[in-house]
Description:
- The chain is an alpha/beta fold.
- The chain folds into 2 domains: 72-159, CATH 2.40.50; 168-450, Rossmann fold.
- It has 17 helices and 18 strands.
- The strands form 6 sheets. It has a 5-stranded mixed β-barrel with strand order 2-3-4-6-5. Strands 8-10-14-7-17 form a 5-stranded parallel sheet. The chain has a two-stranded antiparallel sheet with strand order 1-18.
- Helix 8 (179-190) crosses helix 9.
Amino acid sequence: MNKEQLDEKISAAFSELVIDKALVRDLKIRENRSVTSFVEEWLVARFQKPDKSNAEIYTDVTGFMSQHLPSKNEKEPIKYRLDRGEPIVLLDRFEVTIDIRKGKKLLTIPCLEEKKASVTNEVLDKNQSLLEGGQWGAGRLMVNTDGKENVIELIEFNPMQSGKVKLEQLIKARVHFTTREWIYLLLRTMGYEPFAYSEEEQNNIILRMLPLVQNNINMMELAPKGTGKSFVFSNLSRYVYAHSGALTQAQLFKNLNTKEIGLMGRYDVLVLDEGQSINFKGADDIHANFKDYLESGHYSIGGQKITSECGLMILANIELFQGEPRQKDYIKHLPEMFHESALLDRFHGIIPGWKIRRFSTDCAAQGIGIKADIFGEYLHQLRTVSHHEFPYGNGPNLKGDSRDVKAVTRLASALSKLLLINHDHPDYEEYVFNPALELRDRVRSQLKEVDPQEFSKPINVHY
């Protein structure tokens, strides 16, 4: 199969759900304003027409952005216009939290650096996603009074991203692809060009999506700089939060002053980028909560027990020597709390990012893939879909060490959903079970390095 044949096959299977990733990149929309891939693709799809040149599409998109997606230095002029009674439509990621004690619905408008705006009940009733980590879209704003003071209010909202998508579309489309061709599709959709990578590299890249399709998967990817390991998490799904730099217990778990639930309780996946240099403020308390949460899916703070399905993904840079980690205990590149075997054992898998080449221009998607917002919704729904609606994700009963079995089972379930392969499929062993086993085996190899007395035996998980 070549690039043109892949384009034709993807277009035939998914029709209006696809977009030319190369066109989006060539337009260089993000040089005009910093937006995520799913926003960029939505904008291009909105203004793309068969009779339009690239220059015309670019003009329409950037014109729309300049009118509705303000830069930081335009926030005060916009507030002035609102204050004068002018309704304004802004394109942004709106989010609503509920303050029950005060009886208020608090709306966040990032481009205006506003966290205490309001929203009408009508808008909220139609757009529950505003309460579920926020939603990109076009919002009509105006200033109203709450009886005491003026407040910016969201009075109309048209979501940018798709709502629920039909998973049967994936099932029907999968029949027309071999497993390798399906991996090509996944890579294109993620923003990578499959023909630029070896099959081993392709297999490793798609592992980055496992925490997005399965609840409570905890993973790491360790690699040298420049392999593109953070790209997919920043651009594919609104249900993912990527963070680098210092972190507090309040940010991670719960702010006891504002009562706001932390990142671990609000997203599908929390990605800690530049993991080797993260500074945890109050590391002992965070360590304890991490151990509790990564094992059980809940944590206790301020007298409250909080349950979440959020997975944890740590991305960290390591040094290589002749293509392999320079030291056997490469986990030592991470903050000290992750050197403890009890915490490390709660991670399900380690992606060998050192086996993926540096990202270069030819590695970027060169053709058709599923629109990022559509695909992000597919991944989100796969986390909770019933087996009757989507008959993938159930693997064979495994035997072995309980933590190893739990990890391999969860990883295999995610790969089964991602590749639409069940345990009776001839490709199951090669593409699902063996990769899941290898992911967990790397965790075991690091456990042996930090605690050789307890973890001297090799992994032994079998049917």
